[in-house]
Automatic annotation (TrEMBL):
The lineage of its organism: Bacteria, Pseudomonadati, Pseudomonadota, Alphaproteobacteria, Hyphomicrobiales. The keyword Hydrolase applies. Residues 17-249 form the Metallo-beta-lactamase domain. It comes from Ciceribacter sichuanensis. The keyword Hydrolase applies. This is MBL fold metallo-hydrolase. Residues 259-379 form the Beta-Casp domain. CDD domains: TTHA0252-CPSF-like_MBL-fold. It comes from the Bacteria.
């Protein structure tokens, strides 16, 4: 061995999605996660570009959990030549077996629709990032690893999983790397769950590391203390406020775990008489299949029996076919629809929003993190008009936010998790967070860690993991994306906002003459 190990941050750096970390040691290369970028179109474009590493040079992939922002590019990795093992827990593999094919189906469907529009506009057609066949190939590469059992990933690199408390099968990764000086101990947090998760036990991990790579999604957030009672009381209040005989409560939700938690609590509230019983529609084939997986793993889950019973409730309906989904729009009386995706960027929730956003009797309840540039974030930020599938929709529905169901620990919980890992001798890297969250968690950690040991890497940056402190060895090359763009709105969002503002101005103009003045001013501005 001739040099210290190197870690390269190829995702979830300055942004919350695209988790992907490459560990190199004496010619050996191991990948931790290979997630899809979500958020603005600029970030999503990274999914279509070549990987910033040679896929066939990777000896192993270690997957922390099944969420698409951590697993979503594994089919692409297999598509371009990777054929090594993908190590994961049994729960993660079971979920990936439905989530990755679903991701491929969504891409193929959306690309088919886009190509029809492109052909009408005389534009070039595009291809999906990967297909269902690629997704199936990736699943066949997965190898089960039990929690807390050491596994050799590659020569000189071994690891073991610890429960991360975030999702069925989610894990933190304890890694040991052999170096000429010492055996380096590194911990990847994965996504850390909060203490109030309905279906997950609290996260666990050992102490005493050289380096910790920690997620920071809610690093600047302090939530109130949460219990089952306070969580259900908050949901009860939202349902009661949304109840309207001619209305609907729409809940954009991540199909895996968030949907199951909401379903269990809603049925509990109805069974106990806290809220009136009404139809609950799970409008997501993925959520239906994932719910069955949760049922099979119910003995491993906290409150697993409660979820299994909720799935059997008479007022709960699961849609499978497109026809069943379309029929929801013809339902009468107040009802609750839980549909993917959680950030409103794809899936059936967009059809439900298109049908209900313009109605005052509707309520949209956001129950998860909304990445910058997504439709969910735009609604959360108070947009009065949005565009969905090319149509302009006026927002008259009540837009509400309930963060109590988040799958991520908040700032104090993350800081406490890191503190329990002490001593940390060389450095902590903060990832998987937007700018404010990264800064917020860094400030919290500075209470018990020297500032010079806290690092916030940028996308594609690289560090040599010396026994004392990391050395930044990032290459000077054109970035895959403007370093200021991850975690922010992009020009696509700005253009959409400009078009909507222009339409509003034209509507408010008194007559055609006034509208002509506005358009002439715009043309002059464009010609300057």
């Amino acid at each position: 061995m001739t040099s210290a190990p190197i870690i390269r941050f190829h995702g979830a750096s300055g942004t919350v999605t695209g988790s992907c970390f490459l560990v190199e040691n004496d010619g050996t290369r191991v990948l931790v996660d290979c997630g899809m970028f979500q958020g603005s179109k600029s970030e999503k474009e990274l999914n279509y570009r070549s990987f910033p590493f040679e896929p066939t040079s990777i000896e192993a992939v270690i997957l922390t959990h099944a969420h698409i922002d951590h697993s979503g590019l594994l089919p692409k990795l297999a598509k371009v030549g990777y054929d090594g093992p993908i190590f994961a827990t049994r729960g993660t593999i079971d979920l990936c077996s439905v989530m990755l094919p679903d991701s491929a189906h969504i891409q193929e469907s959306e690309v088919e629709q886009l190509n029809r529009r492109n052909q009408r506009r005389g534009r070039d057609t595009v291809e999906p990032i990967y297909t269902a066949e690629d997704a199936a190939r990736a699943v066949t590469l997965m190898r089960t690893v039990e929690l807390e059992r050491w596994q050799q990933a590659a020569e000189g690199i071994r690891f073991r999983f610890w429960n991360a408390g975030h999702l069925l099968g989610s894990a933190s990764v304890e890694m040991e790397i052999d170096t000429p000086v010492k055996r380096l101990r590194v911990l990847f947090s994965g996504d850390i769950g909060p203490s109030h998760k309905l279906l997950q036990f609290d996260p666990e991990a050992p102490e005493g590391f050289d380096y910790v790579i920690c997620e920071s999604t809610y690093g600047d957030t302090d939530r109130d203390d949460v219990s089952d009672q306070t969580r259900r009381a908050a949901l009860k209040a939202e349902v009661k406020a949304a109840t309207n005989i001619n209305g609907a409560l729409l809940i954009p939700s991540f199909a895996v775990e968030r949907t199951q938690e909401l379903l269990a609590d809603l049925v509990y509230l109805m069974k106990t008489g806290a809220i009136a019983t009404c139809p609950i529609v799970i409008d997501s084939p993925l959520a239906t299949r994932a719910s069955e997986i949760f049922r099979r793993h119910s003995r491993e889950l906290e409150n697993g029996r409660m979820l299994a019973e909720a799935m059997e409730a008479r007022n709960v309906r699961f849609t499978e076919t497109v026809e069943q989904s379309k029929a929801i729009d013809h339902m009468h009386g107040f009802h609750i629809v839980i549909a993917a995706s959680g950030m409103c960027d794809a899936g059936r929730i967009r059809h439900r929003l298109k049908n209900w956003l313009w109605r005052e009797e509707a309520t949209v309840l956001l129950v998860g993190y909304q990445a910058a540039g997504t439709l969910g974030r735009i609604l959360e930020d108070g947009a009065q008009t949005v565009r969905i599938q090319g149509d302009e929709i006026t927002v008259r529905a009540r837009i509400r936010r309930l963060d109590i169901y988040s799958g991520h620990a908040d700032g104090p919980e993350l800081a406490a998790w890191v503190k329990e890992r002490l001593p940390i001798t060389s450095g902590v890297f903060l990832v998987h967070g937007e700018e404010a969250a990264l800064a917020g968690l860094g400030e919290r950690l500075s209470a018990f860690l020297p500032l010079e040991r806290i690092f916030i890497p940028r996308l594609d940056s690289a560090f040599e993991l010396t026994p004392f402190r990391p050395a930044d060895i990032s290459e000077i090359r054109a970035p895959r994306i403007d370093p200021a763009r991850p975690g922010h709105k992009d020009w696509h969002n700005d253009l959409q906002s400009l078009v909507l503002d222009l339409q509003d101005e034209l509507k408010r103009a008194g007559d055609d003459k006034a509208r002509g003045v506005i358009l002439r001013r715009l043309r002059r501005a464009l010609s300057e």
